[in-house]
Fold each of these.
Amino acid sequence: MRLNLFWVRLAFAAFLISLAINVGWMVIGFDWRVIPAAIAGWYLADMVSGIIHMYMDYRPCRPNMGLDRLYFYEGSRESAEYLQLRDATLGRIGPIERLVYDFKNHHPRPDALGRRSMLRQVGSTVLSASLPFSLLLNLANWHAPVPAWLAALLITFLIGGTFAQYFHGSLHRGDVPPVVRLMRRLHLLMTPAAHDLHHQTLQRDFATNCGWSNPILNTTFRALRRRGRLADAGLEP
Ligand SMILES: [Zn+2]
Ligand SMILES: [Zn+2]
């Protein structure tokens, strides 16, 4: 099932307006604590993106749903046969299972993610999480102003979480907008070379925003593997 782009556009516009109002409130109450809090929010978003990525990569797909046929399909992925098989197979499973499949499918075919439009990449996150979360922060501010440092932490967390899939996709395409190139130079986003370390082994560097949380996530991954968790069998359907 594909999200209706009309609703995605509407939700995205509402999200940007709601976010701008939150930023305005934060600027009014600005003090020095805003800076470290904003950095902490950016770090947390990176870490959450990495935890979700690690979990999705290794969570086994439900067997006997035909996902293996789809994953290992050898003919053209633009053929009518494949598209029919894809729609029928993905139509049988729920949204979380589709997401799990998407993460695994990304490894042998990484460029497909980069080819999707930004709205397709962030649409479901905006509708299900970012817009409600930002509206709640508007409401909280309306009721009693949230301290500026806390608002800053929540805002950078929100931006990092919302655009996580877009940032990941941009690591798999050459033509990225100037803002992404600038953020890479400032180390606020990771580079394609740094993300390539994940694709080489699928055992490290799961965070795909700035990558600041990868050292601690890599330690966590190794500890979980020593306990027999996150088995390789989960990587493919
Ligand atoms: Zn992965
Ligand atoms: Zn990737």
Note: Residues 5-235 form one domain.
Amino acid sequence: MLEKLSSGLKEALRKITKAGYIDKKVLDELAKDIQRTLLAGDVDIILAQNLTKKIEERALKEKPPKGMTPKEHVIKIVYEELVKFVGKKPEIMMRPGKIMFIGLYGSGKTTSIGKVAKYYQKRGLRPALIGCDIHRPAAMDQLSQLASQIHVPCYAPKDVKDPIEILKTGLEKFKKYDIIIIDASGRSALDKDLAEELKKLAEFAKPDEVLLTIPADLGQAAGEQAKGFKELVGITGIFLTKMDGTARGGGAITSCAITGAPIKFIGTGEKLDAIEVFDPDRFISRLIGFGDIQGLLEKAKEAEVKPETVKKIVEGKFTINEFYEQIKSIQKMGSLKSILGMMPGLPMKLPKDFDVSKQEEKMKKWKYAIESMTKEERENPRIIDASRVKRIAKGSGTKESEVRELLKYYEQMRKMIKMFSGKRGMISKLAKKFKGFKL
Ligand SMILES: Nc1nc2c(ncn2[C@@H]2O[C@H](COP(=O)(O)OP(=O)(O)OP(=O)(O)O)[C@@H](O)[C@H]2O)c(=O)[nH]1
Ligand SMILES: [Mg+2]
């Protein structure tokens, strides 16, 4: 997600870390680099210029706080201004209530409803779905299927033609549930008819949240759409979908931010786990290579990985023991790529063959092989010679070639982790300094 934007910003910051000293010329160049990167991400030119002007002004005027070099100070300013630039941290409703989803055709409403339902389910609030999209018969089926996939009750009748009637029955039916999610009709454009229908629905449902789904690939145009819905229907937040696979997400985010309607969630894939609460601080941290330690720890917690393991990996210590913990948790935690993407100093885009999470069979065998290793071998795999490989293979019912492949993969990963979290990662050191990362 947003690889170009990320590499552009990282490169601009890397130049600062390499500059001899900070002067007007260096700052001008930084401003230009950032502008160029933002424009390529479809950010509005005036917004981008205002941002870089602010950064330059602050960098020239403000004195570095104690213990911080001028270079570090500039990076800190860039980071702070970028965080402000993408909006405020949203509030996510964490008590029982009703959420109504609205959005144009194909914007990702129904999928996002599934994601949000799952999000609440994981956090102990019981969701139930109501389908009010009476215009497209297939919509009701889609919602019901989604609901059964995550074992959530759903009321989506195909024979009732009045959305208010559906709502009435649905709300009555699901009185005992915590989070009632309503799927409303879409249109190809926001017109008077749609506005009227949605308003009526909202008047009856009295939702605590009205979430508008907007696809991020709209770029800057997302802002206008958000504004239109805000004025005509009223929304409490935005679910920005399809952030994966678009270079224009930066434009979508910043244009939404100025409408004053907070982005609450972002969708990063078609699967129901591909949802994130939008957090400007963490979002920018990840984008510029500070990493997202908090996100990493949360994911780890969900997957029951010990914080100790995460800590070791972040510090660049990566023995077979950590590798083993990772293999064990990969299914629960999602792809290794997305986990590593949260680590300070690691590139967002990792080599293709780096992600073996899909090769479940292989992982299982590797797990057995590691279980056959001695404590000493796990801590110092370099001692594993041909005869040890033979023994491990025999003990775990795997092939010797599989054990060797495991060792090779482990070694690649160890090198990569060491390279990025070791002394070379100036940005990651700064991240620790600025943000007081404590693990
Ligand atoms: N890559 C990606 N695809 C998404 C995401 N969210 C939704 N989609 C896809 O977008 C398409 C449309 O999604 P729906 O959830 O059916 O959209 P909708 O707004 O309910 O559509 P209508 O009910 O037809 O108006 C589907 O193919 C989804 O899989 C996302 O975050 N990333
Ligand atoms: Mg739909």
Note: Residues 109-110, 133, 139, 142 surround magnesium ion (ligand 2) (CB under 6 Å).
